[in-house]
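INFO worker-7 received task bundle
INFO bundle size: 2
INFO processing item 0
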Amino acid sequence: MLAASVVIVGVCAALMVWRQRERSQDPPPPPASPNMARFPAADVYLGVFAALPDVCRQLPVDENCAEWRHPESVRATHIAAFELDRKETTNDDFSAWLNTHTNDWSLEADGVVTDRKKHLPLLATTACTGDLSISPGGRAELTAGAAQRPVTCVTWYGAEMYCRAQNKRLPHEAEWEFAAKGAAGRLFPWGVDTDHLDDVAYHLSAPRAVGTSAKDVSPEGVYDLSGNVMEWVQSERNTPDKWVVRGGSFLSDQPCRLLGSKCARISVKNVGRNVGFRCARGVVEPSQQERTQ
């Protein structure tokens, strides 16, 4: 009996050594796409920032998702590792997708591009944006100079369908906020200073080409989280009729509206000339693969 026990213990020890050796040889996660920034798993305290200026506390509640009254009451939201597009989706990106799937949508009389299967509005053209239009032949066409500007006037459905077609999805709100403020809870994607804000796309008549605002970039290389266009996200704060967008836009009229806490709720079917999006995707790390085997 004692000999058998020794054998069992020896086998178990050998299995543990083998398992540890296998783990040490696990390959790292696949490299991030050059067009996406990778973020590690983290606990995010939604709405909690390092220091919110008093002047910014005057923003209406429906424009600011910062919890500055009782930050100690906020519970952590765990997010898995993810990747986020470095730049907002452009008119060129979106029009190329439409032109690749012309049988999946139709143009309604009011200039709204509508999904044929679910009859959901995807994009408003004539009534909202001059950057992207639909030709009589049913092709998406761009105004000169508009290709690299962010696509706007897109509904949540249009943004999500586009991302899914790229094997991605819209970012969760906690992911978006973590990308904007980092673990330190910085006020703006670039830090705390408000110098050289002419290098942020705000207080303008139109958005800039994505990724061209030299100030508006995070340490991880994600552009335009403060300005250019507000961005659709997935959120637990959604209500049946209104869904969350995050960030400021080219129409923002003051620095407080560029904070990482900037948010709004608009109709899921609504479009705006200052509303766009970018895509995200989860990252399956070796430890996660191991648990599923």
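INFO item 0 finished
INFO processing item 1
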Amino acid sequence: MDLDALLSHYFGGDDLDALDETTLARGMEALSIDFGVERDPGRRFALWALMHMLGTAPDPETAFKGRAEREAAWRLMKISGRAER
């Protein structure tokens, strides 16, 4: 998945600082819904990673059933400096 395409799809562009609160909230809600219904593991992880970058991702232990996905999420969090395991 392409980051610019995801930002454009959910937020109408790649400059999140230029968005008003309503547009940002709608995009976050749509992203959260899509994450919840996505069944493809790769796409689901990409959506989670975007949510993580935006500060709204659920905890990996509740977001992913598979051990490999949870571990990958923890690694991403550690790399980005947000892991509090």
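INFO item 1 finished
INFO post-check item 1: Helices lie at 3-11, 21-37, 41-53, 60-63, 67-80.
INFO post-check item 1: The CA atoms of residues 7 and 28 lie 10 Å apart.
INFO worker-7 idle
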